[in-house]
Design goal:
Layout lengths: L1 H22 L13 H19 L5 E3 L4 E5 L11 E4 L3 E2 L5 E3 L9 E10 L5 E11 L3 H4 L36 H8 L4 E2 L7 E8 L6 H11 L3 E5 L1 H6 L1 H9 L3 E4 L12 H19 L5 E2 L8 H9 L3 E3 L16 H10 L6 E5 L3 H16 L3 E2 L8
Parallel strand pairs: 2-7, 8-13, 9-10, 9-14, 9-15, 10-11, 12-13
Antiparallel strand pairs: 1-3, 3-4, 5-6, 6-7
Helix pairs in contact: 5-11, 8-9, 10-11
């Protein structure tokens, strides 16, 4: 009985060992275990992919939605909108498309090339060029439709309207919100209280008289490649011919700041006309320069004053930033003023600075650098239609 049981157990063990031997047969790499047929299949698939990749010499195709775009100044374009890319081997590779628009300045009128490129898995490249035209600004971008002004100014209110920027600012754009009131009511008279949100800021200087700083201001503007508007009174234009010629020759704008710097709404119609025309005619006769921009002394105006200036061919320029810089014997601190001017910078800003100010003269270069560091650029008012 014991011998029979031993024989059975021995046979069972032998079968188990044989089965184990088959299951743990050595693989080609010397290891033991299950068959490596699955690994061979994976290797075959990878090898097939490599062969396909090596054989893929056909460039992918970029399918453009548009080949040309035309946009107004200050707007943006999504060049990937409606664009797809396909490849014979890889299929849809739209997600691989790259856009190079580094040469484009959406805030400067002109024609630009934008490059779209895509690469497939085999390294084959495809490129397409999209043409972009940025149109110059139009009056409609800056003003509501203009009101037709006629010679009878009695129909316009002569009530004095005090002007101020206010203390409320948009938390996102940093633009003074109080100026919307003036723009909505009086922008139709070709009056700028703040410029469009286009990434530009504009420098303007009031020149009631020369205090010795204008040459340095001009030096800084030339060094920084910035153009500005200089609003001059008649005495300044008469007493500073060399500065007047330099301002004009260096590409800046000369604006009209009246004959005697009086509050325009307090004057009669004839007096207001004379305050503008006398400066206009003198500068035209002596410098061959036609002035087109006017700034109200103190900023006070009336609907009638705006209508008079517009009828004489002028665009009125107010401001969205000013500080207490006109008292030559009580100048603000340079560091504090610089910080204030930079902190309040905003797209579309019109800066009013007085050229008689030593503070403005000292901080000007740093101010320009720090505003540019915030991603803003200085605009040229000569590009604004008026």
């Amino acid at each position: 009985m014991k011998k029979r049981m031993y024989t059975v157990v021995s046979a069972a063990l032998t079968l188990a060992m044989l089965f184990a031997g088959c299951s743990n047969k050595k693989n080609t790499d010397g290891t033991t275990g299950s068959s490596n047929s699955e690994g061979t299949k994976n290797e075959t698939k990878e090898s097939s992919k490599d062969k396909d990749k090596a054989a893929d010499i056909t460039a992918p195709v970029i399918n453009l939605a548009k080949t040309e775009y035309t946009i107004p100044l200050g707007e943006d374009v999504n060049f990937l909108d409606g664009v797809t890319a396909t490849d014979d081997t890889d299929g849809d590779i739209t997600s691989n498309i790259k856009v190079d628009q580094s040469a484009v300045d959406f805030n400067t009128a002109g024609e630009y090339n934008v490059k779209l490129s895509v690469e497939d898995a085999a390294g084959n490249m495809a490129e397409q060029i999209v043409k972009l035209t940025v149109k110059p600004a139009t009056n409609e971008q800056f003003n509501p439709p203009a009101t037709e002004v006629i010679g009878d100014y009695s129909q316009y209110s002569s009530e004095t309207i005090p002007f101020g920027v206010g203390s409320n600012y948009d938390p996102v754009t940093n633009r003074p919100t109080g100026l919307d009131y003036y723009t909505n009511l009086y922008g139709k008279y070709a009056a700028d209280f703040i410029m469009p949100d286009s990434g530009y800021v504009y420098l303007t200087f009031d020149e009631g008289y020369e205090n010795g700083y204008t040459p340095t201001i001009l030096d800084t503007l030339k060094e920084k490649n910035v153009k500005a508007v200089f609003f001059v009174t008649l005495p300044f234009a008469k007493e500073n011919p060399d500065l007047m010629r330099r301002i004009i020759d260096e590409g800046h704008i000369v604006g009209n700041h009246s004959v005697s710097h009086l509050s325009m709404p307090t004057l009669s119609v004839d007096e207001q006309v004379n305050e503008i025309k006398e400066v206009n005619d003198y500068v035209l006769e002596n410098y061959g320069y036609q002035m087109k921009l006017f700034r109200f002394p103190t900023g006070a105006f009336s609907e009638q004053s705006l209508a008079i200036a517009q009828s004489l061919g002028y665009r009125c320029v107010f401001w969205s930033f000013a500080h207490r810089d006109w008292l030559v014997d009580d100048q603000p601190d340079v560091t504090e003023s610089l910080n204030n001017a930079v902190t309040k910078s905003h797209s579309g800003a019109i800066y009013l600075l007085h050229a008689v100010s030593s503070t403005n003269t000292q901080m000007l270069g740093d101010f320009i650098d720090q505003v540019r560091a915030k991603g803003l650029e200085f605009g040229d008012y000569s590009n604004i239609p008026y």
